[in-house]
Write a structure and sequence with these properties.
Distance between the termini of chain B: 57 Å
Number of domains of chain B: 2
CATH architecture of chain A: Orthogonal Bundle
Number of domains of chain A: 1
Strand content of chain B: 5-15%
Structural class of chain B: alpha+beta
Radius of gyration of chain A: 20 Å
Number of helices of chain A: 13
Strand order of the largest sheet of chain A: 1-2
Helix content of chain A: 55-70%
Oligomer: heterotrimer
CATH class of the largest domain in chain B: Mainly Alpha
Largest interface: A-B, 53 and 50 residues
Number of strands of chain B: 13
Chain lengths: 338, 437, 300
C-alpha cells in the first residue's frame, strides 16, 4: 500500500478547484444560516443554476465566458427571489422544506429528457470552456474560459501541487473569487447591516419592532448567499462539464457538514471546514480501498470506498451534538437559531 | 427472488435465438444514445425479418433515467444505460410504426402489453430487447382507461405514502423534529425483509414481513432510546435536531449501500401476474394486497389514535406539550411509543414501496422523502389525519400527472404543489391557522 | 410581587378626558385612537374594542384578567397581527394594513411580554440596533465603512448614555443572553428608547423582575413621561398601576369594560365583575389586600 501516495494525492485537494468551489458554496451557506438564520437546504440548486446558467450562456446565447457567468448569477438571483417571496414570511423550518424541494425541482428539470435539447438531460453539457463555439453558431463565440488563460503551457509547482497551466489558472481564478467573496462577507457581517441580520437570526419580531424591514433584509441575505453559492457552481463549471447528477441533495448536506465543521457564524470557518472536509473525504476515499485491497480491512474495495460517506453522516450527528459551534467558532458566539 | 427475472431473460433468449441470429450477425450501425454510459441495451425491430427504421424506442430506468432513440435503417437501436444489474423498461411507440401493424403479443403473457417490455441488464452490462411486429391490434389505451389505471395506481401509491407520512407527522407533532431520517426508516422495512428472505428463503416471505415489522418497531425504539431521548433531555433546539436527523439519514443510507450494494434487488412476488380488471386496466395481486393491508393498518392506527388512552395522550402532546406534561401525561413514554409506531408504519410503507417501484435499493426511501414531506405539509404539519389525506392527494397527483407531463417530471408536480401550498395555506388542509395564546 | 412604594410620589397628570367617564371616553389630546377593532381566532373573539383613546404624554395602564385580550390588542395596534375589522390611527395617521416595522418607524415602539433580548448579540449591539436611519444598515453602504463610521460613533455615544442611565454600562460587551431576566427587561426598554419613540408600549414590563429592579423599572417608566413620551403598558399588579399610571383602561373578554383614574376605576362594578366574576382564578393576590373591594351583589 502506497501510503505516501495516498497522502499526497489527498493533500492535492487542499488547493483543488473543486474544494474552492465547495468553499464558496459553504460561505454562501454561512451567510444564510450562520449570520442570517435562514435554513437553506437547497444550496445545490443555487450551484446548479450557476453552473448551467454559465454553460447555457455560452452554448446557446454565444456569450463570452465572463458574460455567461452573469447568466448563472442572474439565474441564482431569480431563484432566490422566487423562493424568498413565498417563504421568508413563514417559519424557518418551512424554508428548509421549500428550499430542498426547489433544489430538487431544479435538478429534475435539468435531468428531464423533456428539455434534453437544452440541458443535455442525463448527459449534461460539455465543451463550453473550449475554443469559441456554440451549439447555435458553431463558428462564432468570443473564446472560452480556457482561451483566457495567460499562463503558457507546461507543468508548474511541486508535489502535491504539480499541475498543468489549466489547473493553475483555475486555482488562481478560484482563489481570487473566494478571496473577494470572503472579504465582502466579512465586511457585510461586521457592519450595521450585519448587526441587523444577526438580530434577525436571534429574534425577527424584536428587530421588526425596532422599525427594520425584516423581510427585505432576509431577502438580501438569501440573494447574496445564493449568488455566492452560484459562484461555487460557476467554479465547478470552469473546471469541468456540468451534469445534474452532481447537484443532488446530498451535496447540500455535505456543504452543511463542512459549514458546521468550520463554524457556521464565522467568516473563515466555511473555508477551513471545506478544506478539512474534502481533503479528509479524498483521504478516506483512497485509504479505505487501499486498506481493503491490502487485506487490512474486511471489506470489498467497493464497500471500503463507501465507508467514508457513512462516517460523514455520523460525524455530522456528533458535530451537532457535541461541538455545535464548529472547530473554529467560539462556544459563545454561535450556536443555533432557536 | 431473481426467478422471475431469469425466466424473462431465458424466454427472451429463446425468442432471440429463434428469430434474431441473422440480424445480430450483421455489423451494427445503430443510432446510439448515451454512448459514454458503460452499459448497453440494444435490439431490433423487425416485421417478418424486414427491419423497420424510424421507430421510437424509449428506455426508462430507476432514478429518473430516460432515453429515447429512433431505430436506424437496419431496425436497430442501442441505448447506453447508467447501471448494470438493474431493471429497465423498453417501450416501443406503436404510433411510429407503419400503418396496419403492431407489436405481436406474447401468448404466454396475454395481459402484458407487448410494446412495453421489462429488461434486466445483467452483471455483464449488456442486454438485448427485440420487438417482433406483425398484423395485430395496437396497444392504444383509451384515455378513460388510462385515467382509471392512474387513479388506482395513485391510490395505491398514496396509501403507501400515508403509512410513512402519518408517522412523520406524529413525530413532528410530538417532538417538533423534521425527521429526514424517516426515509431510512422506510428503507429499513424493505431491507430487513430482503435480508430475512435471504436468510429463510423466499417461501418464508409470510414470516419475513412480520419479523421485518418487528425489527422496524425495534429501530424506532432504539433510535429514540439511544439518540432522541437524550437529546430531548439536553433541550436541544429544533434546528439542531433537524440537522442531526440529516446526518443520521446520510449515515444510515450509506450503511445500507455498504451492505446491499448499489444495485436493485427484488422481493419474492414482485413479478406477480397482472390480471385484467376491465378495458386495459390491469392490477396485480400484490397491488390489491398492498392496498388492502394499507387500509387495514391505517384504520387500526386511526382507531388507536382516536380511542386509546395513549393515542389521546399523543394528540394532547401534539396540541400543547407543556399543558400535556402538566396534566400528568408521561410525555417521554408517549414519545417513545410514537417513535415505535412511526417506525413500524414507515417500515411497512418501505415493504410496499419495494413492490411498487419495484425493487429494493439503498436510497429507495430517499427517493420519496420529499413526497412524504409534501404530503405531511399538505395535510398540515403535525396532524396525523391531515397527513393521510395529503398522502392520497400527492399519490394520485404524482401518478396521474404523467398523463400530462413527461413521466420523469412526475415528482416535480408534487413538489410544486408543496411550494404552492406553503404560499397560500401554510397550515395545510387540516392544520389550524392560529391558536389563542 | 411585594415591593415598596417609591420614595417620591410621581406627578400625576389629571383632566385627561372630556365628558363623563365611561368606556371609550374621548380624551383631550389622544395620541392613539382605535375604533371597532375586532380579532377572531376561529370562533373565539379575542379582541372586540368598540372605541378607545390613549391620552398623549401620560402613562396609561391596560389591565384585565388573563385572556382578556390585552396582548392581542397590543399586537393588533403595532401591526404584529391583523384584525378582522376595525380602524385605528396614531397621531391621526391610519395604521390599518401598515406593517409592523413601518408602525415602529412612525414612533410607536413596543416591547414584548416574553423579553426579546437578542441573546447572541452584545448588549451594545442590541442597543445600536435600536437606532433608526443608519446609513450602514443599507446593503450597498455597509460595504464602505467610511460612509457609516461617523454615524456609528454617534450612535455609540447615545447608546452609552442610555446604558449608564439603565445601569447596564458595565455589561456593554457581554452577550445579552448572559443578563438576568430583569436586566433584559431594562435592556429591551433602553433599546426601545434608542429609536426616539413618541409612544412606548410595554407588555408586562414588570413580569418576572425581582423587586430590587422593579423600583428602577418604575422610575424609568416615569422618566419616559418626563422626557415627553407617552406610555401604554400592560400590567397585572394593581399596586404598580395605582402608583404610576395616570389613566387605567380595563379589558375583559376582549372588550374595554371600564376606564378612569386608577383610584376610581377599581371601584367600578364592571371591573370587579371582570376580575372576580368571570375569572376567579386570576392573580387576585395583586388585587386583594391592596384596595378594598366593596361587596356588591352580582346583578345585571
Amino acid at each position: 500500500m502506497d501510503f505516501v501516495g495516498i497522502l499526497l494525492s489527498s493533500l492535492s485537494f487542499l488547493l483543488d478547484p473543486t474544494t474552492i468551489a465547495y468553499a464558496l458554496a459553504t460561505l454562501g451557506l454561512a451567510l444564510h444560516f450562520g449570520f442570517g438564520g435562514l435554513l437553506n437546504m437547497g444550496m445545490a440548486g443555487f450551484m446548479a443554476l450557476g453552473a448551467y446558467g454559465y454553460a447555457i450562456g455560452i452554448l446557446y446565447f454565444g456569450l463570452p465566458w465572463y458574460l455567461a457567468a452573469f447568466v448563472g448569477i442572474g439565474a441564482a438571483i431569480v431563484f432566490a427571489l422566487i423562493l424568498g417571496i413565498p417563504t421568508l414570511r413563514l417559519r424557518g423550518d418551512y424554508l428548509a422544506i421549500v428550499t430542498i424541494a426547489a433544489a430538487e425541482i431544479v435538478r429534475l428539470l435539468l435531468l428531464s429528457s423533456a428539455f434534453g435539447w437544452f440541458t443535455g438531460s442525463a448527459d449534461g453539457l460539455s465543451g463550453f470552456n473550449g475554443p469559441g463555439g456554440t451549439v447555435t453558431n458553431p463558428h462564432e463565440g468570443a473564446g472560452g474560459f480556457d482561451q483566457s488563460n495567460p499562463i503558457p503551457d507546461g507543468t508548474y509547482g511541486f508535489v502535491p501541487f504539480l499541475d498543468n497551466e489549466r489547473t493553475w489558472y483555475l486555482r488562481i481564478v478560484g482563489l481570487s473569487i473566494l478571496a473577494i467573496a470572503i472579504f465582502v462577507v466579512w465586511r457585510l457581517v461586521n457592519s450595521p447591516w450585519g448587526r441587523v441580520i444577526k438580530g434577525i437570526r436571534e429574534d425577527e419580531d424584536a428587530v421588526r419592532s425596532l422599525g427594520k424591514n425584516v423581510f427585505a433584509y432576509k431577502m438580501q441575505v438569501l440573494v447574496i448567499g445564493g449568488v455566492i453559492g452560484a459562484l461555487g457552481g460557476l467554479m465547478l463549471a470552469f473546471s469541468t462539464n456540468v451534469n445534474s447528477s452532481v447537484y443532488v441533495t446530498s451535496l447540500t448536506f455535505f456543504l452543511w457538514t463542512a459549514l458546521l465543521l468550520g463554524g457556521a457564524a464565522t467568516v473563515f470557518g466555511p473555508l477551513a471546514g471545506s478544506i478539512i472536509f474534502w481533503v479528509l473525504q479524498a483521504f478516506l476515499g483512497l485509504l479505505f480501498p487501499a486498506l481493503a485491497k491490502a487485506g487490512l480491512m474486511p471489506f470489498t474495495t467497493i464497500q471500503a470506498s463507501q465507508v467514508k460517506f457513512v462516517i460523514v453522516g455520523f460525524a455530522l450527528v456528533l458535530l451537532v451534538v457535541f461541538r455545535p459551534q464548529g472547530l473554529f467558532g467560539s462556544k459563545k458566539e454561535l450556536t443555533f437559531v432557536k | 427472488m431473481r426467478r422471475g427475472v431469469h425466466r424473462l431473460v431465458s424466454a427472451l433468449g429463446a425468442v432471440f435465438l429463434a428469430f434474431g441470429i441473422l440480424a445480430l450477425a450483421t455489423p451494427a450501425h445503430a443510432d446510439v444514445v448515451n454512448p459514454e454510459m458503460p452499459f448497453k441495451i440494444s435490439g431490433n425491430v423487425q416485421n417478418n425479418g424486414e427491419p423497420i427504421g424510424g421507430v421510437t424506442i424509449t428506455v426508462t430506468g430507476a432514478a429518473g433515467f430516460t432515453a429515447t432513440v429512433p431505430t436506424d435503417a437496419d431496425g436497430k437501436f442501442t441505448v447506453g444505460v447508467p447501471e448494470k444489474s438493474a431493471d429497465y423498461t423498453v417501450t416501443l411507440d406503436e404510433t411510429t410504426l407503419p400503418e396496419g401493424i403492431a407489436v405481436v403479443d406474447n401468448p404466454a403473457t396475454p395481459f402484458v402489453e407487448a410494446n412495453v417490455q421489462a429488461v434486466t441488464v445483467g452483471p455483464g452490462g449488456r442486454s438485448t430487447m427485440n420487438f417482433f411486429i406483425g398484423q395485430g391490434e395496437r396497444h392504444t389505451v383509451s384515455i378513460a382507461d388510462q385515467i382509471v389505471q392512474r387513479l388506482i395506481s395513485g391510490l395505491n401509491f398514496g396509501l403507501m405514502l400515508a403509512l410513512a407520512s402519518v408517522g412523520l407527522s406524529l413525530i413532528y407533532g410530538t417532538t417538533g423534529i423534521s425527521n429526514f431520517a424517516h426515509a431510512e426508516m422506510v428503507t429499513f422495512g424493505a431491507v430487513a425483509t430482503f435480508a430475512l428472505v435471504q436468510l429463510f428463503g423466499p417461501a418464508m416471505l409470510w414470516l419475513a414481513i412480520p419479523l421485518a415489522l418487528v425489527l422496524s418497531a425495534g429501530l424506532g425504539w432504539g433510535l429514540d432510546a439511544a439518540l432522541w431521548a437524550p437529546l430531548r433531555r439536553r433541550g436541544m433546539g429544533l434546528v439542531q435536531l433537524m440537522i442531526v436527523s440529516i446526518g443520521l439519514s446520510l449515515g444510515i443510507r450509506y450503511l445500507y449501500q455498504f451492505f446491499i450494494g448499489g444495485s436493485t434487488e427484488q422481493l419474492p412476488g414482485s413479478d406477480a401476474e397482472r390480471f385484467k380488471l376491465f378495458g386495459t386496466v390491469t392490477l396485480s395481486f400484490t397491488d390489491i394486497l398492498s392496498m388492502a393491508l394499507s387500509v387495514l393498518l391505517i384504520v387500526v392506527f386511526a382507531w388507536w389514535l382516536t380511542f386509546t388512552k395513549i393515542g389521546k395522550a399523543t394528540r394532547a402532546i401534539s396540541d400543547n406539550p407543556s399543558l400535556a406534561a402538566a396534566s400528568g401525561i408521561d410525555v417521554d413514554g408517549v414519545v417513545r411509543i410514537v417513535w415505535i409506531i412511526g417506525s413500524l408504519l414507515a417500515g411497512f410503507s418501505g415493504i410496499l414501496w419495494a413492490y411498487f417501484r419495484p425493487g429494493i435499493r439503498w436510497d429507495m426511501g430517499g427517493q420519496i422523502l420529499l413526497l412524504i414531506f409534501a404530503a405531511t405539509t399538505l395535510g398540515g404539519l403535525g396532524t396525523a389525519y391531515g397527513a393521510l389525506i395529503g398522502s392520497i392527494i400527492v399519490g394520485i397527483l404524482v401518478e396521474s400527472s404523467s398523463l400530462i407531463i413527461p413521466s420523469d417530471l412526475k415528482y416535480v408536480g408534487a413538489l410544486v404543489v408543496l411550494i404552492g401550498i406553503l404560499l397560500f395555506r401554510p397550515q395545510g388542509i387540516l392544520g389550524r391557522k392560529e391558536r389563542v395564546g | 410581587m411585594s415591593s415598596n412604594p417609591t420614595s417620591s410620589s410621581p406627578v400625576k397628570s389629571t383632566g385627561l378626558h372630556t365628558g363623563a367617564i365611561k368606556p371609550g371616553v374621548a380624551k383631550k389630546d389622544p395620541i392613539l385612537i382605535a375604533d371597532h377593532v375586532k380579532r377572531q381566532f376561529g370562533g373565539l373573539v379575542a379582541v372586540d374594542v368598540e372605541h378607545v383613546e390613549i391620552p398623549r404624554n401620560a402613562i396609561t395602564a391596560l389591565i384585565g384578567p388573563n385572556g382578556a385580550g390585552k396582548t392581542t390588542f397590543f399586537n393588533l395596534l403595532t401591526g404584529f397581527d391583523t384584525p378582522n375589522e376595525g380602524t385605528w390611527s396614531f397621531n391621526g395617521k391610519s395604521l390599518a394594513k401598515v406593517s409592523a416595522f413601518k408602525v415602529a418607524r412612525m414612533g410607536l415602539i413596543r416591547t414584548f411580554q416574553l423579553t426579546k433580548a437578542l441573546g447572541l448579540l452584545t448588549v451594545m449591539d442590541n442597543m445600536k440596533l435600536g437606532s433608526t436611519s443608519q446609513p450602514g444598515e443599507r446593503l450597498g453602504a455597509s460595504l464602505f465603512p467610511f460612509v457609516w463610521k461617523k454615524k456609528d460613533r454617534e450612535i455609540d455615544d447615545k447608546a452609552m448614555d442610555l446604558l449608564k442611565r439603565f445601569k447596564l454600562d458595565a455589561k456593554k460587551d457581554d452577550f445579552a443572553a448572559s443578563l438576568s431576566g430583569g436586566q433584559r427587561k431594562l435592556l429591551e426598554m433602553a433599546r426601545a428608547l434608542m429609536t426616539d419613540p413618541e409612544l412606548v408600549m410595554l407588555d408586562e414590563p414588570m413580569a418576572g423582575v425581582n423587586p430590587a429592579l422593579t423600583e428602577s423599572l418604575l422610575e424609568h417608566i416615569l422618566g419616559l413621561k418626563k422626557a415627553g413620551m407617552t406610555v401604554l403598558f400592560v400590567e397585572h399588579d394593581m399596586h404598580m398601576v395605582r402608583h404610576i399610571a395616570d389613566w387605567v383602561i380595563v379589558m375583559a373578554e376582549g372588550r374595554v369594560v371600564a376606564e378612569g383614574d386608577p383610584h376610581e376605576v377599581m371601584k367600578n362594578p364592571a371591573v370587579i365583575d371582570a376580575y372576580l366574576g368571570s375569572h376567579q382564578d386570576t392573580d387576585l393576590g395583586a388585587v386583594t389586600g391592596r384596595i378594598t373591594l366593596p361587596k356588591l351583589p352580582k346583578e345585571k
